[in-house]
Amino acid sequence: MKKSLALLFSVAFLDLLSFSLILPLLPYYAEHFGASPFLVGALTAAYAIGQVIGAPVIGRLSDRYGRKPLLVLSVAGSAISFGILGFAQSLPVIFAARLVGGLFGGNITVVQAYIADVTEAADRAKRFGLIGAAFGLGFIFGPPAGGLLSVSGYSVPALVAAGLEMLTLVLIVSVLPESLTSEAKAELRASPRSRFSLKLLREALTDTRIGKFFHLRFFTALAFLIFQTNYALFVQRRLGYDAKSTGLSLAFVGGLIALFQGGLIGPLARRFDEHRLFAAGALLSGLGLAAWAFTSSTAWLLVSLVPMSLGQGLVTTLNRSLVTKAVDREEIGGTLGLMSSLESGINILAPLIGGVLIGSIGAWAPGLLSAFLMLWSALFIVRRFPAAPHVESAAA
Q1: Is residue 312 part of a domain?
Q2: Helix count (H) and strand count (E) of the chain?
Q3: CA pair distance 277, 350, nearest whole angstrom
Q4: pLDDT above 70 for 281
Q5: How many CB atoms are located within 10 Å of the residue 30 CB?
Q6: Residues 283-335: tens digit of each pLDDT
Q7: Percentages helix, strand, coil for the chain, rounded to the nearest 5?
Q8: Distance, first Cα to last Cα, the chain
């Protein structure tokens, strides 16, 4: 199992590294082909729209046919999308590449389902935390590397990203075992809950077991994505940052998330009830976002990012851990896919909300709204989940 988890860590790291290589350059790439600001925003939304459709389908199919085949499919699709982007010579082709990337961008959903398959419930938060750490590391190295590669042309980072996805594909095909046994796959395939249908996905949203976790994910993800998608505009207006300074400060956030998720979540989840940890994380993140709203210096900015990053790492990891414990085995992939789809939908909404708030009220407004959403989420989970005795895991 340790070998599989190490490979999954590599898959998550390479996936976000390839994604973040081109993410900061997409506006410049699109403007090179004459895109207006509106079309640049639409380009960002195209990937999220693809994920809204693709993530729950890939997750549900992985419940039915196994994790490895769907990992192969999604990573191969991502490699193709980056290849199309690298050779694009027009805006419609760039849009098509990002839409294809979103449709096949469910590999992290399958990675999370794989972890749920091979990890005891008591240790699940720790394992999800390690995947979160891989994300943080990818975000540290990806944007600066993309900037350096773009010196040779905006298409170069996209082609390098395609190469990284191909490397990931080789690792999965040659090394990663299937997490579900033949008997388990036959059992899951026979279950009506593993079949993909829009009706089942609609039912999941109103399912009494998991509806509250989707409720929490909507508000906590909206809070963080308002921060993330409007961060560059905020620091430009408040602190006069250029692209280099913005990238370095975001790398600081990535480093914090990698440190917290990789080193702290496991020990904390073994010691404390996960619902209470979630509430503490939402409270910390809310306080950090409130401080961020009134940033007046770089020192203040960096201090505010510490509790925000710690809290965000906790709520993201624990939300996934808790929801996988609330459903049956044959529903894990589909449920995680639906959660990814929800997050992608929020990714379309968040920049619009933040942009309107900054333009009509002030640069501080997105931070205060995000803080309110996090604090409200902390109160919600405390009210819905009374304190219960927590049993420490004996496993490391």
Answers
A1: yes
A2: 17, 0
A3: 25
A4: yes
A5: 24
A6: 999 999 999 999 989 999 999 999 998 898 889 888 888 888 888 776 777 77
A7: 85, 0, 15
A8: 13
Cβ neighbours of residue 8 closer than 8 Å, sequence gap 6 or more = 111, 114, 115, 131, 176
What's the pLDDT at 395?
39
Query: 259 or 277, which is more confident?
Result: 277
Domain of 223? Answer: 2-194+206-384
Q: What is the dihedral of CA 60, 65, 69, 73, to 10 degrees?
A: -40
Q: What is the pLDDT of residues 202-229, one digit of tens each?
A: 666 677 777 888 889 899 999 988 888 7
Report the candidate in 306, 310, 307, 292 with the shortest Cα–Cα distance to residue 234: 292
Q: Which of 6-20, 180-194, 243-257, 339-353 has the lowest mean pLDDT?
A: 180-194
- Closest by alpha carbon to 81, among 96, 51, 101? 101
Residue 50 resides in a domain: yes
pTM: 0.69
The rounded distance, in Å, linking the Cα atoms of 211 and 202 is: 11
Q: How far is CA 194 from the centre of its chain?
A: 23
> Dihedral of CA 203/206/209/215: which sign?
positive
DSSP 392: P
Q: Please state at what angle helix 37-65 crosses helix 198-206, rounded to 10 degrees.
A: 100
Write the single-letter amino acid at 80: I
In a domain, 96, yes or no: yes
Structure tokens, 348: 């379309």
- 166 within domain boundaries: yes
The domain tally of the chain equals 1
pLDDT at 84 over 80: yes
Q: Are 250 and 231 in contact (CB under 8 A)?
A: yes
| SS3 of 322-364 | HHHHHCCHHHHHHHHHHHHHHHHHHHHHHHHHHHHHHHHCCCC
Q: pLDDT at position 110, please?
A: 84
